[in-house]
């Protein structure tokens, strides 16, 4: 397969990650976006028709119902998009002999661990969003599709989307004081690094001389920037860089608070640090630290 251009169906093409996937695609991947209203992932007939007509060799699913708090009230819709949709893609990928890349989340875990999460650790979602995303992973596993990568990621930010970095920059420009949750620990992830990781995994597959041996490489991968921090640490670093590069900063105090002091409808994992050794071993690539990638984001935003 090496050297050949591969046709990619990019699902949910208007989203934050999808736009980065489109921008970061190596030249041997030819990307076609699919999005609403012509393409609705909850409509199985539309999904089938669109994929059978386009006949992709790769399907990258960046589509999701990502409003975590709204999912609590709209679990049925969340389940259709996040839980059933990936299954429709997996079934059609199997029929077309295409490879599916599906993006999942740290919310499939309970967040009660005391060491970084590995791919085969027990799941245990604590929110409607987490349950719906876990169903999506299970639907792929149950489809019988062999050629899939489920890439779980966390605390995603990048251009073309609402994200924590932009929220902090806006608040820091408006307010004297910020109060940020300090008792949730995780790994921020820059969409540029995740998009690159997706193509690294896909390139492993195209470089492989022996598809049968390669089969062992399919499956679930954890991908996040290296290191860990709390939302409070993340906010401090964002404001610090903003000051250094001369962005408007009014905030002179950042106060660490507890999750209890800032209640939200959906429960967040307290601890969602990923062990990314599997990805690094498979690709031979090391992952930048979250601080390094945050700087990169400031250069491109
Ligand atoms: N953001 C994070 O912090 C985070 C963390 C971990 C994992 N993830 C995962 O990463 C992936 C990408 O997230 P993101 O932040 O890039 O999401 P996003 O910006 O919210 O984009 C999601 C896209 O999905 C589309 N979509 C929703 N329902 C659809 C449907 N029924 N049919 C077709 N398209 C539909 C939306 O389309 P419209 O534009 O029409 O609404 C939107 O463009 C998701 O799988 C998410 O679960 C995200």
Automatic annotation (TrEMBL):
**Signal peptide residue numbers:** none
- Name the Gene3D superfamilies for this protein: NAD(P)-binding Rossmann-like Domain (3.40.50.720), UDP-galactose 4-epimerase, domain 1 (3.90.25.10)
Catalytic reactions on record = dTDP-beta-L-rhamnose + NADP(+) = dTDP-4-dehydro-beta-L-rhamnose + NADPH + H(+)
Q: In which pathway does it act?
A: Carbohydrate biosynthesis; dTDP-L-rhamnose biosynthesis
> Which CDD domains does the record cross-reference, listed alphabetically?
dTDP_HR_like_SDR_e (cd05254)
Q: Which GO terms describe its biological process?
A: dTDP-rhamnose biosynthetic process
Q: Which UniProt keywords apply?
A: NADP, Oxidoreductase
Single GO molecular function: dTDP-4-dehydrorhamnose reductase activity
Known EC number = 1.1.1.133
> Is NADP included in the keywords of this UniProt record?
yes
Pfam families noted in UniProt: RmlD_sub_bind
Q: Does the keyword Lipid biosynthesis apply?
A: no
Q: Identify the residues that the record assigns to the RmlD-like substrate binding domain, covering every copy.
A: 7-299
Q: Which family does it belong to?
A: Belongs to the dTDP-4-dehydrorhamnose reductase family.
Briefly state the protein's biological role. Answer: Catalyzes the reduction of dTDP-6-deoxy-L-lyxo-4-hexulose to yield dTDP-L-rhamnose.
Name of the protein:
dTDP-4-dehydrorhamnose reductase
Species, as recorded: Syntrophotalea acetylenivorans
The taxonomy runs:
Bacteria, Pseudomonadati, Thermodesulfobacteriota, Desulfuromonadia, Desulfuromonadales
